Amino acid sequence: MIDTVSLSRRHLLQVGGLGLTGITLARLLEAEAASAPTAGIQPRADACILIFLDGGPSHLDMWDMKPKQSAGIRGEFNPIATTLPGYQMCEHLPRLTRQIHHATVIRSMHHSVNNSHAAAVYASLTGHDRGEFGGGARPSDYPSPCCVLAMRRPPKKQVVPNVHLPYISKEGAGGPPQPGFFGGFLGRSRDPFFVLRDPNAPAFSVPELSLTPDVSARRLAHRRQLFHTLDARLARGPSRAAIDAMSGFQQRALDLLSSQETQQAFQLSREPESVRQSYGRNRYGQSVLLARRLIEAGTRAVTVSWAPHANATWDTHGGNFSKLKKTLLPQFDAACASLIEDLAQRKMLDRTLVAVLGDFGRSPKVNKSAGRDHWNYCYSVMLAGGGMKPGLIYGSSDKTGAFPGGNPLLPGDVIATLYHALGIRHDGYIYNSLNRPHRLVPNGDVVRDLLV
Q1: Looking at the chain, which terminus has fewer C-beta neighbours within 10 angstroms, N or C?
Q2: Residues 77, 82, 84, CA angle at the centre, nearest 5°?
Q3: For 57-70, how does the pLDDT look when each residue is reduced to its tens digit (9 = 90+)?
């Protein structure tokens, strides 16, 4: 017999709606037990930097080259040796080849999602398939891993928990925001803090972090106390969902204004110019450097979305080799290699999970425009630090890089493994605004071979 006295108000609301939703009480209690922040998992990582190469980076011209194939498949680039014996990468990633012993490269990714960017981005970030061609972010979407991490394991310091920069990537120029980067059904208050200014600009600043002249630090502390007092009283009222959402926004605003660590992290001028040059004096390089500074300050998660819209950067239907050689690969090489080297030197890599993901790869056959087209049947991703096995090349593709040749993985497998490394159960439950439980990653399992 269930002791109803011990049930929380949320339990009672949920139980009252069981008949309407089809959820059994047993499932409800199972979901509640599985929704503990770490649920018995020992976290291998305390923070996550997610670099999303939006548009579909070419696995054949970066991680998984095929030099023995015809020119129409192998392309224009040559492979070079890395710090891992027997493994080669693109000649235009020279610095990353010297850091790859810290990382895991998975060459057998694939998904059955259609080749539209939005659907593939959503699957890659959440492990879920919305089953559609195109479409923007929706309030009913599953949340991004960074939003879940910030919610389940809030920072120990008074800092911004989750930051997204430097773009809210859109589904094509002028299109809607892509799904998978937001709080989704957790509510808008769980969205990241978006920094949409160019960190490489001389006058870069984040005005949201500045107190107005008429508000002192002491006055802000008084407002924080007043806010908590009012929130505690309102919690007994009827509109809990709306109050929770507003409270989330207010709390984030107060955290921003009162967190010296966060404010200082955004002051890139504190970095030596040699370090800034190392990451690359461009919008993306400085965004990755800013990500490291934020994690060092105590932020749990940072997402770097590498494109203003899906067709702007890595979507190389035309001029693939020119774009990669002149801009994309040099910028990525500098930023990613510097980040891994920097984290390792600062003894932060073991507890910081770096994930370099994309929506899909590019077609094995070079098209008439010297480009490669969307290819979801096989692609590569890179993971480093945070409990991932260093120096591991996992899986393989077939002779042309068209399909997985061994140990094929789905996006849900990678996301489940990331959650596990971060101390979150992928088979646990999270609740939407109506207090309905949703399994975090229904299609995917932890890949133990990827973990230390």
Answers
A1: N
A2: 140
A3: 999 999 999 999 99
Q: Name all domains of the chain by residue range, CATH numbers in brackets.
A: 35-194+287-450 (3.40.720.10)
> Is there a contact between 191 and 281 (Cβ–Cβ < 8 Å)?
no
Contact 261, 157 (CB under 8 A): yes
Angle between helical axes of 411-421 and 145-152 (0-180°, round to 10): 20
pLDDT at res. 113: 81
State the DSSP string of 98-119: TTGGGEEEEEEE---S-S-HHH
**Euclidean distance between CA atoms 264 and 58, whole angstroms:** 36
Crossing angle, helix 283-297 and helix 329-345, to 10 degrees? 20
Residues with Cβ within 8 Å of 128's Cβ and at least 6 positions away in sequence, in order, are: 122, 142, 412, 441, 442, 443
| Cα within 13 Å of Cα(401), Cβ side | 30
CA 340/CA 349 separation, integer angstroms: 7
Is pTM beyond 0.70? Reply is: yes
Alpha helices in 298-399 (DSSP H): 320-323, 329-345
Please give the C-alpha separations between residue 159 and each of 1, 102, 154, 446, in angstroms, as whole numbers: 43, 28, 9, 30
Can you tell me the distance from the alpha carbon of 269 to that of 276, in angstroms, rounded to the nearest whole number? 9
Which residue type sits at 346? R
The residues near 239 (Cβ < 8 Å, ≥ 6 apart) are: none
- CA-nearest of 47, 74, 81, 107 to 296 is 47
